[in-house]
Amino acid sequence: MRRYGPGAPGPAIVGALFALCVLLLPAPSVARAETPLDLDATGHITDTVGALGRRRPQVEAALARLAGRDVQLYVTYVHDFSGRTGREWADATADRNGLGPHDVLLAVATSPRRFAVSAAQDSGFRADQLRQVATVAIAPALKAHDWAGAAIGAADGYRSVLAGQAVRPPVIVPGSSDPGGSGLLPGDRRFWAPVATGALLCLAGLLLRRQRRRRARRRVTVVPFRTPVAPVTVSASTEPGLARMAQPLTPLPDLETEASLNLVATDDAVRTSAEELSFAVAQLGEAATLPFAEAVGYARSELAAAFRLRQRLDDAPAHDDDFRRHALDEICSRCTSANRRLDAEAAAFDRLRALKANAAVVLARAEDAARALEPRIDTAENALFALRRRCTEDALAPVWRYPAEARDRLAFAGAALEDAHTGLAEGDRDRAAVSVRAAEAALSQVRTLAAAALRHAHELNGSARRLAAALADAEAAAAGRTEGAAFDLLTAVRREAACERTDPRAVLRRIDEAAAAFDDLLPPDDPGRAARSHARTGRALLAARARVSGARDFITTHRGAVGARARTRLAEAERHLALARRDATEATRAETLALQARTAAERDVGVYGVAHSAPDTTRPARALGGALLGGIVLAGLLPATFGGGATRGRLAAPER
């Protein structure tokens, strides 16, 4: 990871002379004011008051642990913030030193025991997460003058946040109430004060000369870390002690686009990670893969929250710009958090699976799976063909192409397995691992497509069987009524149900709509009303589950083309379906959202265009087109793997 940090130190002799003078000269009796300063270029700690003392190694160890999560925490201790607020001082120091999006600055003023945290708006930390670490892990330590404990608490707290764990307070070790606060010169150094004074005068001359040269150079030299920017606005939601680095506000349309891209990329990362995790569980067992299951669970929860925010924005587009900006920022932040958690586990996941070392074993398992899937495709296809005499084209359309798509994915898997054999024969384990992983992903989609087609056939048969009972319930609810909108609807669905070819699911839904309309006209204590309502609720729940599963399968196997809108509707449909277990009325909402998700996804795929849409397209071209459409391979034709945005394409990297 690239580290953004302070500039290079000056010549050693000048630094040494200056250090000598600082050590020997007496401190002024007035309170010292620390302007935003240059951070120590040799590490992540800048301690101008000697606050850490012998505990500095403990702080360095905590910062190193956090760095393993791809976050650099810089800590600075000064006497005070020179009349500025902590937020202003921390932001100015971070800006002066060119800290980047993955850098966080903890600034501590020891005299007033105040602190501030400066983090970029796109750091991946939400304001509530920063606030939690500040309240639980930093403030209690500073209250007890535990200067080292504040830094350790911050580093460990941010690490816990990234891991999706609770933030814990640090172990308090009280220190000096005002480190470096005495203005007295130790007696054994007073002899050297005149010498130091003379040295300081010489140093001043040297520094003045050097400063003039620097100014001349700056007139023609580009600053390496930052370029001038337009006027900026700092988030008003940030509380004192939780500063945000000042950055230009992204235009709202650009932020909308960024949030949508983040949702799509994160959803792909979570789906791919969950998919490869299932292979690891089959290979190594649940106990060995528990940490990675927890990582996927955390990423899913963050992604679900992001989708919920996106749905809220879609439901109420009239929200003011500030609300939309805050919601979009949080969507991006939660996506970043999900990706970082997956990225943090990627290396350990690779060590556990050891795909390159175990390529031959995984290859054999994949070949067995491929042989078993061909009959499943045939079974699903035969089930759909058997329904053509009884079901309309609209009833079969959602899955009609699934068997053909499954065969294309299977052809891609076969080519990948053959290439893996070639790689092993030539001793090229990198090539074998890449091909085996691509085959695994393709076979997973073959399994999904075949199962979805067969399940759809079973659902149509089940709906056809339930038509008679539903129609009888509707007739009973009608209670002899021969007019009204409900009667007209019932008459229409009677004719539709009597047709040679029908869409059983659609007919069943309309029958239940008519029956519900009739029941609404009956008194609440009608003896048959409760039983009919209960039966309709059961059928509605089955229909919702089928719709949600169908939308999920389509988006999973076509995710290379599906955008944020369809994925958002699917996530919301899944949420309402979970609520339907306790509140049956949620089933209707879940089914509606699932239909919207499927419609939006099909529109995206239509815009994307597919290789196999042309009848004269060759099988290899269709296979590759299907792999791209399914998100099996990334843009570089390399397979996606367990991990977030920074690591899911890592099989492209050569071994070191």
From TrEMBL:
This is Fibrillarin. The keyword Membrane applies. Residues 48-158 form the TPM domain. InterPro entries: TPM_dom. Keywords: Membrane, Transmembrane, Transmembrane helix. The chain crosses the membrane at residues 191-208. It comes from Streptomyces mobaraensis (strain ATCC 29032 / DSM 40847 / JCM 4168 / NBRC 13819 / NCIMB 11159 / IPCR 16-22). It holds the Pfam family TPM_phosphatase.
